[in-house]
C-alpha cells in the first residue's frame, strides 16, 4: 500500500496528492462488469479511502466506507460543496468530460450554509406541493401509454421504451412542461448526455442546451403560472432569481430522471432474473417494494457522486486529505461495506442505505418519496399489464453501461404474450 503521507521529493506530486503512486484509474471494464468486486478489491488494497485518478489522470479520493461516507456528508465544515475550492483547477481543461458535474454553477448543489438552507428550502416546499396520489395517477397514465406502444408486439426493450421515458415525462409534468413534445424529447436526450456521455457525445454542449430549454420554461411560467413545481418556486418568499431557479430545476429534473430510470430498470432486472422474486411476486410473498429497496442496497442507480472538497487539511480513513482535495462519495461501495454487513448478508429489508446520500446535501425531502412513487408505479403497472413477461435474452447477456457514476443496463429486452388493449 502506498504511503500517502510521506514528504514530497523532487518535482513529483505534493505529499498527500492521490496521484502520488498507487492511485487507481477510475474506469474500465471492471466498473461495467462487476463494480462490487472492484470495490472489495480497492477496500482490501487501500482501506476505506482510496486514491484515484479521474479522466485525464486528475487526482481525487474515493470514499468506500459506510462510516466514512456518513462522516463526510455530515461534516460540511470539513468537506464542502463549493467546487471552486478545488486545488486541481489549473490542470482542468475547459472541455473536461466531468465539467458538467464539477464546474461551479449558481445551483443549490454548490451552495453552502445559510444560502444552501434558503435554496433547499424553496425546493422542499415546491416538491411538498406535489400530491403523491396525483403523481401516482400521472405515472400510471404515462406507463399505460408507453406500454400501449409495444404491448401488441410481444417484445420490447424496456430501458429505452419504458424505464428511461417514464420518469422524465413525470418529472417534466411536475415542473409544468408539456409532456411528449419535441422539446421534451430533446431535453431527455441532452440530460442523458450530461449524466452519462457515450463516445462521440459532447456533454458540455448538451448541458448548454438543457439550460436554454429550462430558461424558456421559467420565462413561460413567469407570465403564465400554474399548479407546478416551477411556479411554486417563482412565487416563494425567498425570491430566487430566474437564474437560480433555472439551475435548481435542472438539478431536480436530472435527479428525477436518470437515477429513477435506472432504479426502475435495475428492479425489473432483479424481478426477472432472481428466483426469489420471479417465483413469488405474483403470489404476494415478496413485494415490489422489497425489490426496489434491495436494488438501492446492491445496485444503487448512483454508484459514485462527485463530490466534496476539503476545506482544510484533515484526516479521513487513515489518509491525509489536503485542503482543496476532491472527495468522491462511493455510495455503492458504502452500501455493501462489510463493516455494516459482517456476515456478508445485505439486510435489504431496512432503508439505512446511502443511495440518496446523507446530511445537509442529501436528496431533499420529499424527493425520495416522489421517486419511489414513480418507480413503484412503473414496475407494478408493467407487471399488471404484462403478467407473463420474461427476459428476452439469457441473464448473462445483459450488459451494464460503462459509467463509473450511474449503474444501469444498456438494454433490457423482454418478451410476453401480445396484448391488444
UniProtKB/TrEMBL annotation:
InterPro entries in the cross-refs: Cyt_P450_B, Cyt_P450_sf
Top-rank taxon: Bacteria
Renumbered residue ranges of the record's region Disordered: 1-21
Composition-biased stretches (Low complexity): 10-21
Protein family per UniProt: Belongs to the cytochrome P450 family.
Protein name: Cytochrome P450
Organism: Streptomyces albipurpureus
Amino acid at each position: 500500500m502506498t504511503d500517502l503521507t510521506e514528504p514530497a521529493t523532487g518535482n513529483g506530486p505534493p505529499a498527500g496528492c492521490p496521484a502520488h503512486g498507487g492511485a487507481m484509474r477510475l474506469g474500465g471494464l471492471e466498473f461495467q462488469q462487476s463494480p462490487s468486486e472492484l470495490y472489495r478489491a480497492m477496500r482490501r488494497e487501500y482501506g476505506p479511502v482510496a486514491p484515484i485518478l479521474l479522466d485525464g489522470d486528475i487526482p481525487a479520493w474515493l470514499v468506500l466506507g459506510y462510516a466514512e461516507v456518513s462522516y463526510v456528508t455530515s461534516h460540511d465544515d470539513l468537506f464542502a460543496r463549493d467546487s471552486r475550492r478545488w486545488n486541481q483547477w489549473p490542470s482542468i481543461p475547459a472541455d473536461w468530460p466531468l465539467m458538467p458535474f464539477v464546474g461551479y454553477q449558481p445551483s443549490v448543489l454548490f451552495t453552502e450554509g445559510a444560502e444552501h438552507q434558503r435554496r433547499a428550502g424553496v425546493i422542499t416546499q415546491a416538491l411538498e406541493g406535489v400530491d403523491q396520489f396525483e403523481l401516482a395517477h400521472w405515472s400510471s397514465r404515462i406507463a399505460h401509454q408507453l406500454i400501449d406502444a409495444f404491448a401488441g408486439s410481444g417484445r420490447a426493450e424496456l430501458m429505452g421504451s419504458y424505464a428511461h421515458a417514464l420518469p422524465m415525462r413525470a418529472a417534466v409534468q411536475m415542473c409544468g412542461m408539456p409532456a411528449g413534445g419535441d422539446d421534451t424529447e430533446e431535453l431527455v436526450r441532452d440530460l442523458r448526455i450530461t449524466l452519462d456521455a457515450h463516445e462521440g457525445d459532447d456533454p458540455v454542449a448538451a448541458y448548454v442546451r438543457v439550460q436554454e430549454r429550462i430558461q424558456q420554461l421559467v420565462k413561460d411560467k413567469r407570465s403564465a403560472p400554474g399548479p407546478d413545481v416551477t411556479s411554486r418556486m417563482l412565487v416563494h418568499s425567498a425570491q430566487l432569481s430566474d437564474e437560480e431557479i433555472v439551475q435548481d430545476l435542472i438539478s431536480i429534473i436530472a435527479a428525477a430522471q436518470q437515477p429513477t430510470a435506472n432504479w426502475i430498470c435495475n428492479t425489473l432486472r432483479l424481478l426477472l432474473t432472481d428466483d426469489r422474486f420471479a417465483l413469488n411476486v405474483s403470489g404476494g410473498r415478496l413485494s415490489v417494494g422489497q425489490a426496489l429497496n434491495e436494488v438501492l442496497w446492491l445496485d444503487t442507480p448512483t454508484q459514485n457522486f462527485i463530490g466534496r472538497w476539503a476545506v482544510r487539511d484533515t484526516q479521513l480513513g487513515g489518509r491525509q486529505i489536503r485542503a482543496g482535495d476532491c472527495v468522491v462519495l462511493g455510495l455503492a461501495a458504502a452500501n455493501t461495506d462489510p463493516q455494516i454487513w459482517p456476515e456478508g448478508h445485505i439486510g435489504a429489508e431496512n432503508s439505512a442505505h446511502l443511495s440518496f446520500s446523507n446530511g445537509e446535501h442529501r436528496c431533499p425531502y420529499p424527493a425520495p418519496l416522489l421517486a419511489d412513487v414513480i418507480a413503484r408505479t412503473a414496475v407494478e403497472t408493467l407487471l399488471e399489464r404484462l403478467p407473463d413477461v420474461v427476459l428476452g435474452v439469457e441473464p448473462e447477456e445483459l450488459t451494464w453501461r460503462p459509467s463509473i457514476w450511474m449503474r444501469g443496463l444498456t438494454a433490457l429486452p423482454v418478451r410476453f404474450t401480445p396484448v391488444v388493449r
